[in-house]
C-alpha cells in the first residue's frame, strides 16, 4: 500500500517539533559542519538511517554544508515516511 499524503495541517504540526523548513512538497534542512570530512561523516550517518527505512533524501554537499530534501516522490508529496526520517536525522544532533 502506498504511503498517504499528509494534510497541510499535519505537516505544519510536525514542523513544530522538527528542525526543518517546508519548501513546497519537500522538507528541507541545511546542516553546517566544521569541515568537509565532518560533512561526509554526517551524510554517511544519514545514509544509514535512510537505508534502514528504504526512504532516501536528496543530498547536496558543498564543503562543510549539507542540504537534505525529503519528499515521498511515489506519493507526490510529504508523508509520514518523511516526518519519521526527519525526526531520526534531527536525533543525530549537530
Task: State the total count of DSSP E strands.
Answer: 4
Measured by DSSP, the beta-strand proportion falls in 15-25%
Which strands sit side by side, in order, in the main sheet? 1-2-4-3
Report the biggest beta sheet as strand number plus sense, adding barrel if it closes. 4 strands, antiparallel
CATH superfamily: Transcriptional coactivator/pterin dehydratase
CATH class: Alpha Beta
Instruction: Return the average pLDDT rounded to an integer.
Output: 96
- CATH-defined topology: Gyrase A, domain 2
The structural domain count equals: 1
The number of helical elements comes to 3
CATH architecture: 2-Layer Sandwich
Q: Which consecutive residue ranges, at least 5 long each, have pLDDT under 50? A: none
Distance between the termini: 35 Å
SS class: alpha+beta
**Strand and helix order:** HEEHEEH
How would you sum up the global shape? globular
Radius of gyration over all CA atoms, rounded: 13 Å
